């Protein structure tokens, strides 16, 4: 098994409230990522205030003649509304030739 780590930041030309609403809703966010053509969110865990804190998900994309299914778990680790959001993602890939 290979483990890799990535981190980064993104600048979005939107009002902070609009951008934060998008990226803090993982299912909605994954649906606007151009490379992902399907997504299913399962097993949503919530905090006492009802906010989703972790998700199990399956996303699909096609890369040339190959269909790739990504499966993973995303956990929200830090949240400061309209300022700061940190998710930890663990995922695997399953690729089949179409």
Give the SSE layout.
Layout: H1 16-23, H2 26-31, E1 38-46, E2 52-63, E3 66-80, E4 84-97
Antiparallel strand pairs: 1-2, 2-3, 3-4
Can you walk through the features of this model?
- This protein has 98 residues and is mainly beta.
- Helix content is 14%, strand content 51%.
- Strands 1-2-3-4 form a 4-stranded antiparallel sheet.
- A hairpin with a 2-residue loop joins β2 (52-63) and β3.
- The relative contact order is 0.17.
- The model has no long low-confidence stretch (mean pLDDT 78).
Q: Which features does this protein show?
A:
globular, 14% helix, mainly beta, four-stranded antiparallel beta sheet, 4 strands, 2 helices, 98 residues
Strand order of the largest sheet: 1-2-3-4
- What is the average of the pLDDT values? 78
Number of distinct helices: 2
Shape: globular
A few lines on this structure:
The chain is mainly beta and 98 residues long. The chain has helices spanning 16-23, 26-31, and strands at 38-46, 52-63, 66-80, 84-97.
């Amino acid at each position: 098994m290979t483990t890799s780590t990535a981190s980064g930041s993104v600048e979005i030309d939107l009002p902070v409230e609009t951008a934060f609403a998008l990226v803090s809703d993982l299912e909605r966010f994954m649906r606007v990522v151009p490379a992902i053509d399907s997504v299913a969110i399962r097993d949503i865990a919530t905090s006492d205030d009802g906010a989703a804190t972790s998700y199990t998900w399956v996303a699909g994309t096609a890369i040339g003649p190959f269909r790739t299914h990504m499966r993973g778990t995303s956990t929200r680790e830090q949240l400061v509304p309209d300022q700061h959001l940190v998710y930890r993602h663990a995922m695997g890939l399953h690729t089949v030739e179409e």
